[in-house]
Amino acid sequence: MTWFSLSKAPLLTGFHFSFIGRPIFHGSLASSSNKTTRFLGTTLIIAIAIFHFYLESSDLLIYLNANLNKSYAEVANFKISSEDILATDSQFFSLLYRYQKTLNYEVIKVNYWKRYRNATSHNNLELLGEEQRSQPLTPDLIIISAYTMNKFGMPDSKQYKATEEYKDTSTPKIKLFGKTIKRLLEPLKPYSFRRIK
Fold this sequence. Notes:
- With 197 residues, the chain is of the alpha/beta class.
- Helix content is 46%, strand content 15%.
- It contains 11 helices and 7 strands.
- Strands 2-1-3-7-4 form a 5-stranded mixed sheet. A two-stranded antiparallel ribbon has the order 5-6.
C-alpha cells in the first residue's frame, strides 16, 4: 500500500504503464486475510477488468476478424522507393520501418509530435535538421490500415490522393442481424496514399 501511494509512476506516465502495477496491488488486497479488504480487492479487480476491456475492446477485437496473413503479405509487397519518406500506423510499422525514412501516422495526424518535441532535450534536437525541429518531415507515401483510417481519419485530400490500386477508400462495417455495427469488416486492410506534387 505504501508503494502504491508513494509511487510516482502513475503521475509520470499518465497511468498508461501502471496497468502492470495495478493487478499486483489489487491482487494483494484480494488475497488479504481481512474479509473487508479481500472484498474490496476482488471488487476492484472485477470493475477494472470490465472497464479496461470496454475501453480497449476496439484494439483487442481488431484481430478477431482480421486476415493477418493476407494483410501483412499485401503490405510486405508494397513497392516503396528508397527515397520515399513513409508514414504508417502501428499495425504495419514493424513491417515497413526504414531507418530515418519512416514516420508514425498517428503521431503526425493527432499532432503528438509537438508534445514529443517539447519534451525532447535540446542536445537531441540539435541532432535534427533545422526543418525537422519545427515540424516532422512531410511523408511522400502513407500506408495505413482501415482501423487507423477509421479512427484517425484519412490524410488531407488537398495533399494526398489514394494510389491507383486503392482508389476505393471505404471501410465496410460488420452487419449483425441486419444492423451495421461499429466494428470494421476488414480492420487490417491496407490503404495507400501518395503525396500530390
